[in-house]
Amino acid sequence: MCRWLAYTGNPIQLETVLFRAQHSLIDQSLHARLGATTTNGDGFGVGWYGHPTDIPFRYRCVQPAWSDRNLREAARAVRAGRFVAHIRAATDTPVQETNCHPFRHGRWLFVHNGSIRNFPAVRRDLILAVAPELFMGMEGSTDSELMFFLALTFGLEQEPVRALERMVGFVEETGRRHGVEHPITMTVCAMDGERVIAVRYSSETDSRSLFHSTSFRHLHELYPEDPRIKAVGDDAYLVLSEPLVDLPGVWEEVPEATAIVARGEDIQQRIFRPQAG
């Protein structure tokens, strides 16, 4: 389906994780190891923050990530301490720029891997639940963007995890009303420039892969001469679909039905419980 990663820490060149890592996101666009599809060539996008309180920058394109020369130049030029990147494998919706992640609203960025099952059948009911004042901000036709705007409707900017729980509960309730046994599968990430919120969940408890980095302070002790680890700082944090390097002790799998909220050195995990009604 798709692959994505989100980073917070010392400012680094985007190319560090997009191109230079052993199993970089660009490598994953051609050779995904843990995804439902090996190739993710239906567009890509990167969103980053110049300052935590600013509206984030965004670059999206429908070309395969591995063949876009402008992406390579931008990734070399841009240094950021907070960013998210996504490579897309389209399912039921067209390959077009407005369907490329990350989606943006104000300071918020959003990416998704997975699907709302039988989306054409439930799409109308879901769209009608989006708040009228948000509706004009929807540009594309994906289930992913609709999930984002439903989460905004349910209070993402105030209580992000609870809003995502309400969004998933509503999607599941709607899907089952239409006879869909397992309405949703997802790993998602929402960022506002200060927090990274990531969730791994599926209706059938068999979610797409998701990993996070362990303590970089500990990793500096394990690998004191590794320049990749030195550069990011002690409070760096990565959450991503697939590990970037094969160093022991660097990655942990995110448990099923788990939400993560990362803000600087404060990393919290909690059980993710969808809320219907």
UniProtKB/TrEMBL annotation:
MF terms (GO), sorted A to Z: transferase activity
Species, as recorded: Paraburkholderia megapolitana
One Pfam family, short name: GATase_4
Protein name, as recorded: Glutamine amidotransferase
Lineage: Bacteria, Pseudomonadati, Pseudomonadota, Betaproteobacteria, Burkholderiales
PANTHER family: GLUTAMINE AMIDOTRANSFERASE DUG3-RELATED
Domain Glutamine amidotransferase type-2: 2-277
Keywords linked to the UniProt accession: Glutamine amidotransferase, Transferase
Domain of life: Bacteria
Matching Gene3D superfamilies: Glutamine Phosphoribosylpyrophosphate, subunit 1, domain 1 (3.60.20.10)
